[in-house]
Amino acid sequence: MNLQRFAFRTTAAAVSLALLHLGYAQAQEAAPGASAPTADAGKLASSGDALELDAIVVTGTTEGVSKMNSSVSISTMDADQIQDLQPTSATDILRSIPGIHAEASSGSSNANVTVRGIPLSAGGSRYMLFEEDGLPILQIGDLNFLTPDSYIRTDSVTERVEAVRGGSGSTLATNAPGGIINFISKTGDTEETNIGLTEGVNFKETRYDFGKGGAIGPKTHYYIGGFYREGNGSRDGGVDIEHGGQIRANVTQTLENGYIRVSLKELDDRTPTNLPVPVRTVGGNIQPLAGIDPRTASFYSPYLLPDAALNSNNTSTVSNVNDGFSAKSSAIGAEASLNLGRGWKLEERFRYASNSGHFLGVYNGGSSAGAAGEAPAPAGTTYLTGPNAGKAYTGNAFTAVVFNTNINDASLTANDLQLARHFSLGGQDNMAATAGLYTSSQRVGMTWNFNQYLLEANGNKPAVLSSSINGTSAFGGCCQRVIDATYQMASPYLNVTGGFGALNVDAGVRRDAQTASGYYSAPSFASGAPVYSPSLTVTPAGANNPSGAIDYSVAHTSYSLGGNYRIAQPLSLFARYSDGVSFNGDRQAWGAGPVDGGPVPINEVKQLEGGVKLHAGDASLFLTLFQARISESNYDLTTQITTANHYLSNGAEVEAGYVVGNVRLNGGVTLTNAKITSALKPATIGTTPDRQAHAVYQGAVTYDLGTARAGVNFAGTSASSNSGNTLPGYVIVNAFVRYPVVPSTVLTVGVNNLFNQLAYTESDGAGNARALDGRTIKAGIAYSF
After folding, report:
1. Three-state DSSP class for 37?
2. For the whole prediction, is pTM greater than 0.70?
């Protein structure tokens, strides 16, 4: 490992020196009168358009259109704005976008995301599709132990993020009835070279970034960039879990009638996963336990034992729990846009991503007395590991369940082919029709092993105690599983748009057809075998250990109709109605529904939305009123509870911005009234869905001196409930300063959670809760030319 890190550092240093030399040579060869490159410390929208309502967007539309002329609710964030947020992960960026409920409390992956009161019932992102350059990261957003953000890392290649909320995604993408989040890459249209180094100030992390783009011929341009990091992450577990990075590159060839582009991505990153920690609940109120601070607690520890597990081929393996979450993705993509003449246009996007990984995390399955984390260890308990090994232990203890899931294969092949025809109707009136076929094949191959250990109730380098076993009785003994499945999608679609003076209209229809095949079964360790000497067996199918074939097909026709009327240059009204779906994936295999024929439930979202967009002088406003009706089924493996609920969500979403002088103000608030209208459990009817706050808000103030930039931003929520417990409201404040010491070199200091707020994002009702990280401080230096 040390040799590997030394090799990477040496390579990174060589790359940095090469880029510096190249930048110096380019500066020496610059044309007379050309200005020297400078580091961009940030700039305000010169037009005063704080929300960039006149900017052209490509996500959630069949062709590029400005926000003012589109009938969708969409927010954009450029690279400067992303850096200002001081995000700890890709999902952390989304907390600053109105309408989106993003729980970025788990680290660099495993985040939960939804929108506008649509329930967050299954984890992950069931209703919001994560894309990278217009194609999905994963086709199924709520896979067990694998969420789309697992394979997304923002770096110098990220040009901007476009987030569409609402129903246009129903006909323009599969599994996107709530909207689309698109991470868009730089393509080297302009010359750019940058390198950077960032260090954690109050935590251990070192990160190197680089990016370079520009022309390599008269009609060819490229961009290549990425990052590498190492450390123990924002929570000190006493072990260096963070280790890895990514490299992305693309090359674009401009043609007389369009362009073709090839892209590559190599991600190999290892990070901690912050799971819920033991807490005390009194009357539904969550209270931290002594020695376990939910903001900083980590159950990764140098004193954990190797975790014995079973492969999908029924052979034994041993894992290091301190490897945390490993994400690996090797992707290749191709894109073409060709004007064929006479109003015809052909667009093709393809990507194959070989995805795999390993999920290792520690979750509290209960204390020795059944009350999470609060009961003393049984009499006679001793330390099994750590500096006190062999000595008696008399403190509190809990059953630590290791989630050990191998992501054997989560590869995705996706292709989107569309043919468009533009018609001129005279004057400025026009129409366009786009017909397309989207196909994808999502592999889901995973092996689960849950072993339990007795762990001291300590959030800082806990030791293992005696009485550890293979397998676990926690969660009903649910969780020794294997699944090997393929989910194939074929989706023809048709969209028609028209511009008639001040009125823009669009309508779309999409037929999604999913075919699932494969198997699921339940190999496990024999209960009671010691963790360091496993005894292997295969548990027969039963109530908690089902097995069988996955063989079914299901389809749905989605539609969407929208219109935008520009009353005046600075004012537009818009409205949309849509019907879209999200298909179930591996959760269906473990639930009560059929997986080998017969009717298979789908999750349907019907939405009505409308609002106003205003850009007057230096002020911008985006107001949307919405209503969503949701019908969904879900199965939670850890509780063995099946739900089949209907929900109604009404609300208002406001996004506003104002530029005055050197100050830019951005903010938003989403007010939501969501209710369960029918359910298998009658007592829940009329109640608010779990983790649904009535108010979610965000804001930012940025001060730009031209050469320096500083600001604060915040994201907050009112109180909500989860599994009978109250999640108090909170406000997380971040701050940053960027200062160029010389024109080409910028120093940055950023603080996340400036006031060290204790912010709970979820509770399982069994004595566990998860919170956002406490205060973290980073300092960095970047050189660009």
Report:
1. coil
2. yes
